[in-house]
Amino acid sequence: MSSAPINAPVDIASARPRVRPLRWVAGAVLLVLAAQFAWFLLTNPRFEWAVAGKYLFDPNILRGLGMSLLLTVIGMTLGSLLGVLLAAGRLSGFKPAAWACGIYVAVFRGIPPLVQLIFWFNLGYLLPRLSLGVPFGPTFVSWPTNSVISSLTAAVIGLTLHEAAYMAEIVRAGILAVDPGQRDAARAMGFTAGQGFVKVVLPQAMRVIVPPTGSQFISLLKGTSLVSVIAMADLLYSVQVIYNRTYEIVPLLIVACAWYLAVVTVLSLGQRRLERHFGKGQR
Question: Which residues of 192-214 are buried (b: 16+ CB within 10 A; e: fewer)?
């Protein structure tokens, strides 16, 4: 009587995947929870979906959404430009500039953006007038602070300065991620320092810079909801104005959530395309 060898080879093509009962249990639990949540959304009359649909494309809501997008674009553009300068200062060999940029980043990353917005909106309490002139000398021209620092101005200043602190660290990390030998190779090819940075260092740094920059853009869009506390007519403020009049709080908040989700989804798709573009050759 013969028996099969103990160490007989196994045909991988005929091997069956191992049964994982815990995964089946977890999947079933998630399915039940999803079904229960969907049932809650569809059967609870207090969501007032008809009211939400009525105000989804309301002109005031759309104007508020446009203001939120405008603040996001302005804040991200100015914050990125200032962030690049701060990153360059932190990486420079000039110690006073590096220290000053480091202190800026620490301060504006450490103070919550809501506090910054309220502070800039009330700047007139500290400085009744804004002036231009010689330091400790004569003043050439001045304006009342409250006529200069409006809700829009305070929102742009607060969001820009806060965003610049984060973008400075993102840009600095991207530049430091590039191998120093790349700069030596650029100099060996006859590039100047500026040409080497633009043509060699920056394209490689963008692979590190783009993903967190896209996340920052999305975070800034959601952060614009904070400007409602200074009576800036963004998306959330427009929603609040309506539900303070109609007392339909939940359906109006659903409208705000729907627009935030829609815009963030579109931005996330754009971020993925940028990541694939700058990540060519890495996989």
Answer: eeeebbeebbeebbbbbbbbbbb
Whether 177 contacts 87, CB under 8 Å: no
The share of the chain scoring above pLDDT 70, in percent, equals: 93
Which residue shows structure tokens 């614009």? 224
Give the model's pLDDT for residue 8.
56
Q: Residue range 252-278: average pLDDT?
A: 89
Cα 85 to the chain's mean position, in Å? 19
Q: Could you give the C-alpha distances from 226 to 105, 152, 195, 216, 248, in angstroms and in order?
A: 21, 12, 41, 15, 21
Distance between CA atoms of residues 195 and 8, nearest Å: 63
Pairing, β 139-144 against β 129-133: antiparallel
- Report whether 141 contacts 150 (CB < 8 A): no
Q: Distance between CA 156 and CA 149 in Å, rounded?
A: 10
End-to-end CA gap in the chain: 55
C-alpha closest to that of 75 among 157, 168, 12: 157
- CA 280 – CA 240 distance, rounded (Å): 45
Tell whether the torsion through CA atoms of 192, 193, 194 and 195 is positive or negative: positive
